[in-house]
Amino acid sequence: MRITTIINNKGGVGKTTTAHALATGLKSKGKRVLSVDVDPQGNLSFTMGADTGGIGLYEAMKEEMPLSAVIQNTNYGDVIPSTLLLTAADLEFTDTGREWILDSLLSPLKTNYTHVIIDSPPTLGILTINALTASNDVVIPMGTDIYSLQGLNQLLSTIGKVQKFCNKNISIAGLLMTRYNSRTVLNRDIKDSIEEKAEELQAKIYKTIIRDGIAVKEAQTQKLCLFEYAPKSKPAEDYMAFISEYLAQEQEGT
């Protein structure tokens, strides 16, 4: 079972879009996929068509409900939904070992799923630490703007600390450039800067670049899978190419 966290401490970079596309794309390829929404905003849960008005990840982390009771079956795969109760996580989860709560919940599922995709919040609190501690690797969506580049050092520092203290085996699967518009000079310049920064930090960068497109927002509004709503759109084609790269890493042993 490969557990991947989609992470970026900056909003608006296509983090949830990438998590949803990866989960649904893997499912379309016959993989057994569980999506875990660790973001209190619950955007992934909404897009997956999950019920966010009942129990969810919070109750499982608090040991108020077994994990099996909070997993929902949707048209786009199994999902553990988020609720607003998770906003209090940094205040409520204070016991020793709090970094390993999610890891202990997911460990018994190793024979149930081939892939677990975690959508993390755009903050570096205890929920994100839990996601990283439970994961084999991370995918970092990078919007082609200067702010995405500025936050990369802080994010990599956090991943490094988790690797040192909580999960020595976690790795960076790759940086994924998103919302790209080749018609703008700024986007092309930032793309070059991201590639240079990735090389400097010795971080893999996916060859696939996700082009911008209105189909993404339209599909999310309709609670539809991008590959179902607009399979021939540029973002859909790009995300499918990214998924092929992602799966190829497993063959390479990375």
CATH topology value: Rossmann fold
The CATH superfamily is: P-loop containing nucleotide triphosphate hydrolases
Structural class from helices and strands?
A: alpha/beta
Q: Give the H and E element order.
A: EHEHHHEEHHEHEHHEHHHH
Strand content bin: 5-15%
State the separation between the terminal residues, measured CA to CA: 14 Å
Overview features:
globular; 7 strands; single chain; Rossmann fold; 254 residues; alpha/beta; 15% strand
Task: Give a brief outline of the structure.
With 254 residues, this protein is an alpha/beta fold.
Q: What does this protein structure show overall?
A:
The chain is an alpha/beta fold. It has one domain (2-248): Rossmann fold (3-Layer(aba) Sandwich). 45% of the residues lie in helices and 15% in strands. The protein has 13 helices and 7 strands. The chain has helices at 15-28, 43-48, 57-61, 67-70, 89-92, 101-106, 126-134, 146-150, 152-165, 185-200, 214-221, 226-229, 234-252; strands spanning 2-6, 33-37, 72-74, 77-80, 115-119, 137-143, 171-178. It has a 7-stranded mixed sheet, sandwiched between helices. It is globular and about 50 Å long. The model has no long low-confidence stretch (mean pLDDT 88).
